[in-house]
Design a protein that fits this description.
The structure is a homodimer.
Chain A lengths: L7 H8 L3 H8 L7 H14 L5 H8 L4 E6 L5 H16 L3 E6 L3 H13 L5 E5 L16 E4 L9 E5 L1 H14 L5 E5 L5 H16 L9 E3 L4 H14 L5 E4 L2 H14 L8 E6 L12 E4 L2 H16 L8 E4 L2 E3 L11
Parallel strand pairs in A: 1-2, 1-3, 3-4, 4-5, 5-11, 6-7, 6-8, 8-9, 9-10
Antiparallel strand pairs in A: 10-12
Helix pairs in contact in A: 1-2, 1-3, 5-11, 7-8, 9-10
Chain A binds a DNA duplex (16 and 16 nucleotides) through helix 2 and helix 4.
Chain lengths: ~325, ~325
DNA sequence: ATGAAAGCGCTAACAA
DNA sequence: TTGTTAGCGCTTTCAT
């Protein structure tokens, strides 16, 4: 009897009003006399009543919950996006259900459970084109992509302006007088890697340098792949004077390999990355990088999603954020920190 | 009319059976004739029917969702715990709602929304004693602590065996012949830091070394604090021959400061950390550390929580995992990798 | 300003 | 084996 928690009706009974009046009170309706309200509030207080969110979702037809699916939760950039998105969601009294889907099949299942079963009101997908998962994104459902522009023009997205960022990173190396600049990319099936490669290309071209395909090596975002890339250049006997690694982890791998090979950074080899992870300033030497405001990406994605859900905006949006050059010692002997 | 998604009754009508029969089919009940089942399944297929999870939660009185609250989502150890927990939850067809609460007040609000409003069936709290948040954990609700043993004996927990891990780390330095071993701790208000300090202490004592309070400096888990710690030793003119940093990030800070001060690692200063972050093997030099299986902690926490929810076990459990020594060059010139 | 009635989509208990 | 009757706890008409 008094074992389970009180419901709307229990409160109503105690306050001597209809359950509807209690509903009005907890929903902050104006149409209730101050004294009635006080009565109800007293009853609520006394019984320790808390509205049941599930029942509310049921009656209202919406869950007030969003979902964010990313390849994993541990990658620093993903985690930062998620954190930014979650904080913004809570700001708007929404919850964020963040899940990792390692592969397209896991993604498909997740979307089925989350969206198919109406567990959430909207969905954020991080890196939808990292593999075939984009084929399984829901149709006719509030959706925002993160990390890449949508191929289909009716899908909103928030991402880094990869081409521009890469252009600026390369420009930095060029401004230092480098003419032999290697590129270590992420997986080339990701648009992000391609866009960054294009920015690199454009900067070289504008500087009147010819594009040398052998100066480009594909990595997979891991430190190990950065390391392998430099080792490969060394093996081929074509060591560049500068390397633009498309993220900080690979840049770290490059510097690690350089160290072992006795190549001094930055005097013999300048290195620049992208991200500015927390540890980047502790690398040896501290890493010059293009700092992005990653939580901001998550924040904007959530706002966009909420706008879509609340039908505030109907316009498709493709937001591109820029990054800021942070010069440290990996490109400049006297680089600040 | 045909605009909104079909419900159980729509399917029932189409199949010419009662809605209850449809319910039986989607719940895999045996009590339904194969031919009836086929009929229903055909209707489901044809109409594209998907059960509504919210309605189900409503009727069943449980949400099949768990929550995990951590100080933030970006710290590598937290993210790893969460990922491990989330994967295990999905294994059991549960969802994991992971949220960050930067301070006790945010934590309180979150618990109120999540637990008070019955949005989740159980709760995992990472580092409940990092601040005063433990005061706001729900009573009489499925709960598991992560990262520390519960002070109250009726709360389950999963954590690293901090004392043992610190003991082993210190033993490693001792076995290398060091007698001047400094300690850089996490915030001393965290049990974890204290337990690790105790393990360090025990190892020294057992080795017949006197405990020198001035060799212990409190950090805050950040690389910067590790860096400051070593600088402080240098300033005082009492540079140790070895440092046990209670996590890898601080160890990295220590090595970074050593580099700048011209102190060679490991010849003049041996450094060991705890965690084995992905980047630890790329530090300069690669870091010797106590590797913990962090996702495992999340996995066990989820299992424990599910056991509590399903009343499988009533016994309180305080699980302590151990770590594995990984020797790299920061303690040993020829340390493997 | 308040209450009564209906229903959100499902499961559970009981009948048939 | 199947169907009927009640809710789960709330919101939403529509009266009053």
């Amino acid at each position: 009897m008094s074992k389970s928690r009180p419901t709307l009706r229990d409160v109503a009974q105690k306050a001597g009003v209809s359950h509807q009046t209690v509903s009005r009170v907890i929903n902050g309706s104006d149409d209730v006399l101050p004294e009635t309200r006080a009565l109800v509030e007293a009853a609520i207080e006394e019984m320790g009543y808390r509205p049941n969110a599930i029942a509310r979702s049921m009656a209202r037809g919406q869950t007030h919950t969003l979902a964010c699916i990313s390849p994993n939760l541990t990658d620093y950039t993903f985690a930062s996006v998620i954190e930014g998105a979650e904080v913004e969601a809570r700001q708007h009294k929404y919850f964020m259900l963040s899940s990792s889907a390692a592969d397209p099949e896991a993604f498909r299942e997740l979307v089925d459970e989350l969206v198919g079963h109406r567990r959430v009101d909207g969905l954020i997908v991080i890196n939808p084109y990292a593999d075939q998962r984009f084929e399984f994104v829901p149709k006719n459902f509030p959706l925002v992509f993160v990390g890449v522009s949508a191929h289909e023009k009716d899908i909103c997205s928030v991402s880094l302006d990869d081409e521009k960022v890469a252009y600026e990173a390369t420009r930095h190396l060029l401004s230092l007088g480098h003419t032999s600049i290697a590129l270590v990319t992420g997986p080339m099936e990701e648009d992000c890697s391609q866009d960054r490669a294009e920015g690199y290309h454009r900067a070289l071209t504008e500087a009147g340098l010819s594009f040398d395909k052998s100066m480009v090596i594909e990595g997979d975002w891991s430190a190990t792949s950065g390391r392998d890339a430099l080792l490969s250049f060394i093996e081929q006997g074509r060591v560049p004077t500068a390397v633009f690694a498309q993220n900080d982890r690979m840049a770290m791998g490059v510097m690690s390999a350089a160290r072992e090979a006795g190549i001094k950074v930055p005097t013999q080899l300048a290195v620049i990355g992208v991200d500015d992870m927390p540890l980047s300033s502790y690398f040896d030497p501290p890493l010059t990088t293009m700092r992005q405001d990653i939580p901001r990406i998550g924040l904007e994605a959530t706002r966009m999603l909420l706008d879509i859900i609340q039908k505030k905006s109907t316009a498709t949006c493709d937001m591109k954020l820029s990054a800021e050059l942070v010069v440290r010692q990996s490109t400049s002997q006297k680089g600040g920190d």
